[in-house]
Amino acid sequence: MNRLTGKVSVITGANSGIGKRTAEIFAEEGSDLVLVARRLDKLQEVEAACAAKGVKVISVSADVSKYEDCQRVIQQTIATFGRIDVLVNNAGIADKHRPITRCDVDWWDHVIQVDQYSVFYMMKEALVHMEAAHSGSIINISSIGGTSYNSGISYSAAKTAVISMSKNVALQFAGQGIRVNVVAPGPTPTALNTPEQISTFDGEFAAQCARHFDDTVPEVSVDDQAYAILFFACDESRGCNGQVIVVDNGRTI
Ligand code: NAD
Predict the structure, then answer these.
(1) Strand, helix or coil for residue 94
(2) How much is the pLDDT for 215?
(3) Cβ of 93 less than 6 Å from ligand 1
């Protein structure tokens, strides 16, 4: 408890899955919160649950694939709280496991915009304030698709870029009080990973990707992901910068 007391954390994709659980755990740890996703009604349910733990919470409806929405999120954060200590870039979509020969350009653009550009936009805006404060912790959510390339081409490209962008920004601010680290989840039961979603996958390429998996290893939980995110958010991880934690029960070792 109280690992994040006095801090203000922005969490994207906070109305579902890993982001929602991260918001709940951050609230238990004392962080004030800015919850971000497109659907305000769903966000407000998470807002109420987090506020009940005694922290101040606002919800901001935004499409993080749009730069102007990301600017607005950070503006509202500063207008409400005057600071931003932690940024969790968690919002993302899956890519239906489409390989390059079956991935059209519109689909490629869409996945890259949501899964990669959003991380650039949000970091760029938040860092203005973190740089002025000489303080901040950014946690970007990649995937084993970004460490083992076992997903469709667009998701793999975006999630690998999340890691390289994180390390690049970590390098820029190393030793200056600002840290950027990555959590790379393995299969975790959320809305992104339901049997209905999996039925939309390109089956042939998914089977090829599965060569990199040990499917006998169980899935991880949203708690497992959220506690890894908490580790990088709090000051106890102050020595970690530009690092990647893969949270997959060892499935891709
Ligand atoms: P989820 O579908 O439950 O949550 C995704 C969240 O992102 C939702 O809140 C959704 O509203 C939000 N979102 C999507 N597009 C958005 C946009 N354009 N603007 C704003 N918000 C948007 O899925 P999850 O599993 O909790 O996913 C969270 C992160 O974890 C994602 O980045 C995902 O790629 C990553 N991940 C998940 C798994 C898994 O197996 N669940 C594995 C590897 C990586």
Answers:
(1) coil
(2) 83
(3) yes
d(CA 191, CA 13): 12
Q: 3 and 234 in contact (C-beta within 8 Å)?
A: yes
Q: Which atom of ligand 1 is nearest to the CA of 141?
A: 32
Average pLDDT over residues 3-16: 98
For the chain, the distance separating the N- and C-terminal CA atoms, rounded to the nearest angstrom, is: 32
In tens, the pLDDT along 194-238 reads: 989 989 999 999 999 988 788 899 999 999 999 999 999 999 999
Whether pTM exceeds 0.90: yes
Residue in 143, 25, 24 with CA at minimum distance from that of residue 95: 143
Pocket test for ligand 1, best of 192, 196, 249 (most atoms within 8 A of CB): 192
In short, whether 219's Cβ falls inside 6 Å of ligand 1 is: no
Q: Is the dihedral of CA 4, 80, 169, 228 positive or negative?
A: positive
The per-residue pLDDT for range 171-183, each reduced to its tens digit, is: 999 999 999 999 9
CATH number of the 8-247 domain = 3.40.50.720
Smallest CA-to-CA distance from 22 within 102, 106, 89 is with 89
Stated as kind and residue range, the H or E segment containing 78 is helix 67-81
Q: What is the mean pLDDT of the chain?
A: 97
Extract the tokens encoding 89: 């870039």
Ligand 1 atom with the shortest distance to the CA of 15: 9
Above 80 in pLDDT, residue 1? no
Catalytic residue among 67, 117, 149, 155: 155
For the chain, give me the number of helices (H) and strands (E)? 10, 7
